[in-house]
Structure prediction request, 208 residues.
Amino acid sequence: MNKKKNVTHHPSLITHHPEGVVWHPSRVSHNDRCQLLHQQGIVLWMTGLSGSGKSTIAVETEKRLIEMGKLCYRLDGDNLRHGLNSDLGFSPEERKENIRRVAEVAALFADAGLITLVSFIAPYSDMRRFARERIGSDRFIEIYVKASVETCKKRDPKGLYKRAESGEIDQFTGVNAPYEVPGHPDLILDTEILTLDQCVAGILELLD
Prediction:
């Protein structure tokens, strides 16, 4: 899980464009796409510790939105590490590159008019700030999926906390790597108190 891989990334999360690379504008606007889909393109960015419930909430919210006739797509941290981010490890720099890439994808999806559900640990505040700025504050909703380290250790659905505490995994958030709690999230879902249905209802109410 923590195998080092060759990757080029920029710790500041700023991409530099080579000479001759020019942005080509479209004749179709963001509003045109949103009107076609009868919805607003937006990103629901869920952050929290491993085991807090991010993926579970995102999966159920995606299902509910589709049932409501809304076009949406889910970007899951583990899923993207199977493909787009398969060359990245878990050092602070690689985590930043991981978030830079998903923020770029989420920004494109939101511009296309999709409701995009992002479930990433995204442990550092500067990562989440970059994502908000790249996607746009008017299209970005930060959701803190809250659960204590102790609770997440008890859940430990993947057995990762045990492996981290035994020294098998280095740079694991909540054990030997930090998690910076969001200062002013748009929504807090405390999964130690709320049921899955209540969490999804809270998100849908916020969207409404």
About this structure: The beta strands are 42-47, 72-76, 115-119, 140-146, 187-190. Confidence is low (pLDDT under 50) at residues 1-14. The radius of gyration is 17 Å. The helical segments are 30-37, 54-67, 77-80, 92-111, 125-135, 149-155, 160-165, 196-207.
